[in-house]
């Protein structure tokens, strides 16, 4: 009888509990409307740490405070499910560049060993959270309703070849979609690296398919390996999302997309991850 790779890994893990079965990349898309304001406030009171509570109290506008509370209670709920710890017990620290990380307790996490990486993005009422074991992940979400000035400003951050590709699209939604596809991918990659906007967006480039998908990737000089999986999604109409996850031989090439706040047990939408985009050297050729 032929044994598939996942079956073989599960069999080996059963024989040797120290071996980890590769886990899928998990993604949650949650709108602010998926969690009632009163409930978000109650959960935040019990789950968020002092630093998060302080930030939540600084917002002048209720809509911004609500976005923050939904996003950060989403993080704690999803991480609690993955890590096997209570939401309030999770210790989240931030790098010098502000990227959050989960600090595992002594002895590792009850579920998932020592390393569980996550990344959060939110925009205009939508929150996107990515979680992966053993690797680094970055996510970004954007709504296609940016004003023309913002779109033009974004384009100026791209490489000349990317700017040329954008210019080939008709004005209006087709052009905006191309701009935001590139922007979300660049944001996701930079956030996975832990660099944020500290990485100039004209120092790396993407070649994208007409509809969806990464055809080529030219990493910055400080990323010699350059092996990443990139996913483009439109989980909600006119809401674009991008995922960048470090590729590894031990990785389950599946993404599980969850909708809404993680209360129930609804089955996620399973999406096959593309093959790793191998980093190329030299400037991409103009189309």
Q: What sequence of helices (H) and strands (E) makes up the elements?
A: HEHHHEEEEEHHHEEEEEEE
Low-confidence stretches: 1-19
Helix-and-strand structural type: alpha+beta
* Main pleated-sheet profile: 5 strands, mixed
What is the number of E strands?
A: 13
Rg from alpha-carbon coordinates: 20 Å
Relative strand content: 25-35%
Quick one: overall form?
Answer: globular
Work out the helix count: 7
Question: Could you tell me the mean pLDDT?
Answer: 88
The termini sit apart by 49 Å
Helix percentage: 25-40%
Lateral arrangement of strands in the main beta sheet: 4-5-1-11-12
3D structure, described in words:
With 287 residues, the protein is α+β, with helices and mostly antiparallel strands. It has helices at 5-15, 37-47, 50-56, 62-83, 148-155, 160-167, 173-192; strands at residues 25-31, 91-94, 100-103, 116-123, 126-133, 137-143, 205-208, 214-218, 227-236, 239-246, 254-259, 269-272, 277-278. Strands 4-5-1-11-12 form a 5-stranded mixed beta sheet, with helices on one face. The protein has a 4-stranded antiparallel beta sheet with strand order 6-10-9-13. The protein has a two-stranded antiparallel sheet with strand order 2-3. Strand 2 (91-94) and strand 3 form a beta hairpin. The longest helix is centred in the N-terminal third of the chain and has 22 residues, at 62-83. The protein is globular, with a radius of gyration of 20 Å. It starts with a helix and ends in a 9-residue tail after the last strand.
